[in-house]
Input
Amino acid sequence: MILKTIDNPKISKLTNQINEVQVPPLCPKTGNPITGSSITITYMPDKKLLEFYGLNEYIASFIGSNDVRDLEPLTQVIARDCHEVLGVEVTVVGKYILNTGQTITCESRG
Output
């Protein structure tokens, strides 16, 4: 799924845009990651902003995906995709809580 953007109205000198999205269970077999997992996307916008509702749909499109099977590459794919649609440097931090009691934090820049 392609990320959706909206035009940046540039009402003020916005220095950072931070979007935090809750991550649903992505693996139908294990149920991982569990509730409380999130992805935080940080960037300095130029002409575009990530469209919030589209961002939720984009994250949900990874449920059961065979393209990205592990959480570490997932974070990298999201950083790459955000960078491609926004045209600016993006930092993505995924905080994934597993049903084994472990938490994995992945950071990627695109």
